[in-house]
Amino acid sequence: MTRFRKSSASLPPPTELAADQRVSKHRRIYDHLLAAIQSGQLKPGDRLPSEAELGELFSASRITVAKAVLDLQRLGYVTRRPGAGTHVQGPAPIPGRTFGLLIPELGLTEIFEPICRGMMRTPFARPDTLLWGNTASTIREAARDAEQLVDSFLAQKVSGIFFAPLELVPEKDQVNRRIARTFERAQIPLVLLDRDFLPYPERSPHDLVGIDNRRAGFLATAHLLSLGVRNLGFLSADFSANTVDARITGFYEALRSHGVAPTHDPVWHGSPDDESLVRCILERHRSGGIVCANDVTAAHLMRTMLALGVRLPEEVRVVGIDDLRWASLLPVPLTTVHQDCAAIGMAAMATMLSRLDHPELPPRDVLIPTRLVVRQSCGTHLASPAASRSLIPDH
């Protein structure tokens, strides 16, 4: 049994801290205490300074200090006893757990690579291992490989699964439900990435980490409406994930909030590479605008329109959602709604660990904030000076 010492261990004064102001105070406190424990400066049984003392040392609030200490406790570096304070448990973290990454579109859809990097960079993941299978080259290969990977994860006795449900193939719903049922029967927790596998607005009994897709659809649509564009349409690919249904809901809500009542159904489903479909869209929405379900759809739509001789954004204005890294490099830089994929990954890992510690909690939606990124495709430069002053600039 560890023997607790009565006196608090001393820490270096603030002048000796690695004080990179770009790093949050929570992270600086966490890293400094962890380094002191791992170096042996703080030994097993040492009592940490009180939260008030640490707050004064780091010029931080007690809430920030408590959060850093709680993170150390979660990983087994310290233990807290009521009335006795917080003591060093030992320099070694608790044994790591193994998590499976079941992301059929990894390598096919750009948002998932930064999400995975966010998982690996979070301090919560340091003792843990992430496993994933081979990257598929087509979406149909991804569907096949996803089900095969399930057996591998079960054999390795993973502690949890990060699952990004399959989309863009007709059998997606059946595949996703089979995968989910398999892990449910094995009592292995799932954290869903980006989307649920049940159609919107239904909800599965699993934690989900992503963005508020309804708000994203609203933001993109309201921006075009703020520029005076009223003849708006929405385009999505066939068999899209239910996140697109939520984005369409936000699209309709923005129209209603601006008093716009379309005379025809403004939502289109199909391939943006299909010239016949795009010609139909142009007949309806020329001199208007198109909100696309995501940046990939927007990029393909703009390419098809440019091939048909359409001047963008003078004749048709286009907005996407996701802010993929190449969005600003398109022939007409794309206005879009930015989602912080790294933050999604970090939140997903924290959500998984919380689920393992508290399995009795109800399923949660953890939504990462989004923001509008204004570029040329929306025609901001064509708006009136008064409207332009109200817009959010590119970052």
Compact overview of the structure:
The chain has about 400 residues and is an alpha/beta fold. The protein has helices spanning about 25-40, 50-60, 60-75, 110-120, 140-155, 170-185, 215-225, 240-255, 275-285, 295-305, 340-355, 385-390, and strands spanning about 80, 85-90, 100, 130, 160-165, 190-195, 205-210, 230-235, 265-270, 290, 315-320, 335-340, 365-370, 370-375.
Description:
The chain is α/β, with parallel strands linked by helices and 395 residues long. The chain folds into three domains: 14-88, Arc Repressor Mutant, subunit A (Orthogonal Bundle); 98-211 and 342-367, Rossmann fold (3-Layer(aba) Sandwich); 213-339 and 371-389, Response regulator (Rossmann fold, 3-Layer(aba) Sandwich), CATH 3.40.50.2300. The protein is 39% helix and 16% strand. It has helices spanning 25-39, 51-58, 62-74, 112-121, 139-155, 172-185, 213-226, 242-257, 275-285, 295-307, 341-357, 385-389, and strands at 78-81, 85-88, 98-102, 129-132, 160-163, 190-193, 207-211, 232-236, 267-269, 288-292, 316-322, 335-339, 365-368, 370-373. A six-stranded parallel sheet has the order 4-3-5-6-7-13, with helices on both faces. β8 (232-236), α8 and β9 (267-269) form a beta-alpha-beta unit. It is globular. Residues 1-7, 14-19 and 385-395 have low confidence and may be disordered.
